[in-house]
């Protein structure tokens, strides 16, 4: 091989690798937008994961809480941010799968404005009743519900929430007539079920797990196809006869659309490592969360399937929030 030939090959290799060498990431602190108030489940999850991801990325990750409008405020803010990998967003069931149907103008396009980074976790949901309700399993609950003179009320953290939509799907499959009692958040809804003001609801494990363990709420069944590890004594609703019923609240991480692929890959790698650390596993165990890490492509496919599922429910029920 002549010197000139070798030189040309070396120069060609350098040219091909130049974009990679020129892309330094991250270049400074990363902003993580959480579209919920500080102190809630999504905020806690973001902070514990951000702490671990920052070790891998070599830069601090700063949480920026932007609550309101069912995540629309935070999501719209993130959608308009510079696509350089220096900003990410907690994107959940509402952000990516239901708000496009619930709101005429959510302020962003779930399918076009974000680059998926990876799924984080899902919150299994459990059908719970006030202990005074004379039902200990699904068949007894259905019999009690149908024996009421008026359509029994159920609580939810708010209209359009995953808990609300799960109950609407449940009522269709079980052929029940129910009355929705929406609250402003999971905490007041749970407290009123405990107090007996409302007889039942679907509650996620983060908001209701401790109350189930304490006996303040009685679990009827889990809204997943397999039993939840932390509550393995509670049968699923599917195994009690409600075939195919499955509902979760879930969340993942996204960046603005057109974020460089190298940045998305770096973020995904750091996210996967974080979810596997003892600190995150311990916190997930405490909250009753199921880790569902994966690739950006897997997150995109999951969000799409959830859009199709819950979009049908929202349209069929005529649920609209503005």
Automatic annotation (TrEMBL):
Source domain of life: Bacteria
This protein's UniProt keywords: Signal
Tagged with keyword Nuclease: no
Zinc found in the keyword field: no
Record InterPro entries: BUG, Bug_dom1
Coiled coil: none
UniProt cross-references to SUPFAM superfamilies, sorted A to Z: Periplasmic binding protein-like II
A Pfam entry, by short name: TctC
Span of the signal peptide: 1-24
Family as reported in the entry's similarity comment: Belongs to the UPF0065 (bug) family.
Protein's name in the database: Bug family tripartite tricarboxylate transporter substrate binding protein
Origin species: Massilia suwonensis
């Amino acid at each position: 091989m002549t010197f000139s030939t070798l030189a040309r090959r070396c120069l060609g290799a350098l040219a091909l690798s130049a974009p990679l060498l020129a892309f330094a990431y991250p270049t400074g602190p990363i902003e993580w937008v959480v579209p919920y108030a500080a102190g809630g489940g999504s905020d806690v999850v973001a902070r514990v994961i951000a702490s671990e991801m920052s070790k891998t990325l070599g830069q601090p990750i700063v949480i920026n809480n932007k609550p309101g409008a069912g995540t629309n405020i935070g999501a719209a803010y993130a959608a308009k941010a510079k696509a350089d990998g220096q900003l990410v967003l907690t994107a959940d069931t509402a952000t990516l799968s239901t708000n496009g149907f619930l709101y005429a103008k959510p302020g962003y396009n779930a399918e076009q404005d974000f680059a998926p980074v990876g799924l984080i976790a899902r919150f299994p949901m459990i059908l719970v009743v006030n202990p005074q309700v004379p039902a200990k399993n699904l068949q007894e609950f259905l019999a009690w519900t149908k024996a009421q003179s008026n359509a029994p009320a159920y609580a939810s953290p708010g209209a359009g929430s995953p808990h609300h939509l799960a109950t609407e799907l449940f009522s269709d499959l079980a052929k029940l007539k129910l009355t929705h009692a929406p609250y402003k958040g999971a905490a007041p809804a749970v407290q009123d079920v405990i107090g007996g003001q409302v007889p039942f609801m679907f509650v996620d494990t983060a908001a209701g797990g401790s109350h189930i363990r304490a006996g303040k709420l009685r679990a009827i069944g889990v809204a997943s196809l397999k039993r939840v590890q932390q509550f393995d004594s509670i049968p699923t609703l599917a195994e009690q006869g409600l075939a195919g019923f499955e509902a979760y609240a879930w969340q993942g991480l996204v960046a603005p659309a057109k974020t460089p692929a190298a940045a998305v890959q770096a973020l995904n790698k750091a996210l996967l490592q974080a979810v596997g650390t003892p600190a995150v596993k311990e916190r997930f165990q405490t909250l009753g969360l199921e880790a569902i890490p994966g690739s950006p492509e897997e997150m995109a496919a999951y969000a799409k399937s959830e859009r199709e599922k819950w979009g049908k429910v929202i349209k069929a029920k005529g649920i609209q929030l503005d």
